[in-house]
Specification:
- By secondary structure, the protein is an alpha+beta fold.
- The strands form two sheets. It has a six-stranded antiparallel sheet with strand order 1-2-4-3-6-9, covered by helices on one side. The chain has a four-stranded antiparallel sheet with strand order 5-10-7-8, with no helix packed on it.
- Strand 7 and strand 8 form a beta hairpin.
- The longest helix has 19 residues.
- It starts with a helix and ends with a helix.
- The relative contact order is 0.15.
Length: about 190
Amino acid sequence: MIFFLLLLLIATSAHRKAAAAGIDIYGPIPDDYIHKDGSAYHFAEGSNASIWVHAQFDISHKQRVEKRQTPTTGPAHIGISLWTSPGITGLSFWIDDVVYNTPYYSIWPFDFLSVGIAYRSLDYDEQLDLSYGKGDERCGLYLYSPGVMPVQSWTQWDTQPVTCFRLWVNLGAPVWRTWFLDGVRG
């Protein structure tokens, strides 16, 4: 019970912080990001873009589509970010609509130490691969996939250093995961 109250407090504080800064959390990402490369946004901690992304972790996919009143552009309909410091802080890059089977890595040569997922949980047959590498091989070494069990839409976690991620559909996912998730999601 205390855990859920804490989550509610965190969610409302992200929304309050965005409102205090005059940021429309259902609108587009604020334009104070440092660099945009395709659908990847790079920004600094404390920027309006950073505040907006923190608030995105508390918006469901349904709310996002209804409130923004615009169609999503990527087939996965999920937002994923990597952060340079634990606790989803520091410099970051954000992909608003992840496309399946596409490796995403930052133009910055940093290691990322925390991950955030927004809008929805991973489906039973989706797998998020986290990798590490340097230079042209930022996705070179596969490290692990945290998406074996359901991940909630507000999920943020600290990780060993990563430099790349890829979301894909794992058609070989065990059938028991389907039964388990059907029970969890009701």
